[in-house]
Amino acid sequence: MGQNSVRGEGTRKRVPRARELGWDDDLHGAGAATGAGGGPSEEAAESDAPASTRASRRRGGTGPSGRAATRRQAKKTGKRKAMRWVAITLSVLILGTAGAGYLYYEHLNGNIRGGSRAGGDSGVKKAAPNALGDTPLNILLIGSDSRNDEKNIALGGGRDDKDRKPLADVQMLLHVSADRKNASVVSIPRDTVLHIPECKDKDGTPYAATDNRPINESLQRGGPGCTLTTWESLTGVYIDHWIMVDFAGVVAMADEVGGVPVCVKSGVSDHPTKAQPGGSHLKLPEGTHEVKGVQALQWLRTRHAFGSDQNRAKAQHMYMNGMVAKLQQQNAWTDTGRLMGLAETATNALQVSDEIRSVKGLFDLSMQLKNVKLNRLTTANIPTAEWPQDHNKNILVKSSADKMFRMLRDDVAFDKNGDPAGSKPKPTASAKPKATAEAPGSLGVTVVNGTGSDTEPAAEGRARAIAELLQGKGFAQAESSQEGGNRPDTVVTYPKGDGDQGKANAQSVAKALGLPDSAVRADAKAENLTLVVGADWREGTVYKKPATEAGDIPDGAQVIRGDQKDCMEIFDPYKWDGKS
Predict the structure, then answer these.
(1) 364: burial class by Cβ within 10 Å (0-12, 13-18, 19+)?
(2) More confident residue, 1 or 450
(3) Is the pLDDT assigned to residue 47 strictly greater than 50?
(4) 37: left (phi over 0), alpha (psi -120 to 50) or beta
(5) CA neighbours within 13 Å on the CB side: how many for 475?
(6) E strands along 48-136, which residues?
(7) What percent of the chain has pLDDT over 90?
(8) Would you tell me the crossing angle of helices 336-349 and 247-256 to the nearest 10 degrees?
(9) What is the average per-residue pLDDT within 458-476?
(10) Would you state the pLDDT for residue 63?
(11) Which of 537, 240, 30 is nearest to 231 (CA)?
């Protein structure tokens, strides 16, 4: 008779037991108790038992002890089966999840594009650790105007520029303090003319140094690594990483966070005019708005309606502050769901320097920023003036730029909201020199004149004057070098391979001249102890470290703090009444 559809009726095909399929492994020691794994079979156990016992078992047991034993055995067997299946299920889930997690992690890693950290040699070294062994973190943020694919062409126009090397439309240096309690952001307008050092492209193509081209061209002269080297040469600040985003990346990131809050004091329509063709086509009524998608890109690219490149940078700072605030509101550093979405979008949108080209690298980097409060995030522009040779281009205001760069080098906060004086942690007792400096007369010291800058030639005779000063202080082997260069700050470098002894010797030179401990740097390329007299010591025999105080930002820097609510002024021809 065939199988009946009613449960329990008719004949049913025998279902193999798990151990017959090879699935019933000896989990938690169950095999020995159930006959699996080489133990006696049920048939063998039955045949070996006495006749009375076999009869009792067939009847289910005649006495209380027999029935109880049967129930205990059944219960125990049921538990074992349950445990086996739970263990198998968990094993599958764990292995499956781990496999999927690994594949997803590799997928994210595969999204990330990278490149060399530097495109040339600026000679700038990482800042010396503070008393607690911490160093600042500096990241160069670059906005590229690339039209290298259809998405970017659709967003930025310029199909004819598809094969053109991109320019660095946006450049911001993000400085996070050594204690990770404050952050400063400085921008340089894209059309600012300054020194771009010698660089090499990723394929090895060399580009000679130039002094009459705008900073946005640095991206064409060796990629983002050259832009980083340009900033290092200019500021004297060692930059740890660069992060670059294109048009499509900006749109994707703005959409991922659900829009970024910005504000205009009047309605704006950045449209072409007779005087200024082109424009971003940004159109917003008066007030605060959360821009995303194409509108976010329009905000970042608007120049004419905001009146100048400096004001465009200010608008970009407003956007950046708004995005940080939005991420903090969304608990982006602790909410797993947000992290997953951000990770997927960011790894597709961003190109980064090779040393952080991984999900772990980017995550670790983001964790350095999560504790910076909005009232300790400060954005500012480096003040500029019109370039005499072309009124459409800018040059830096040297005195203001030098002051701001010095604050970054010395890790001085751009805000005044820090801890009260004396509240910073004290160095531990273990922070003692590990070597004793050798006698001054035994040390060979090469003195280099690095007092030149982009706007001033080197002060004549500085290397010779400071070498004689050192000789008078007992460093009899100090001698001046014919080499020169531009360096904003005075430093004493020693061969990295000399370790603690080299550091102790360099510190003795710095101390003799009244230089701060931060002036002592290890240099992998240095062949001997070298003093580079920087642009901060152009005259005199007594080093006077320029005073820098928290929050002492020069006029014209257009400072915005992260917790401040500000709105952009709109240039008259681009004001919109919100109707037409």
Answers:
(1) exposed
(2) 450
(3) no
(4) left
(5) 27
(6) 113-115
(7) 47
(8) 170
(9) 95
(10) 54
(11) 240
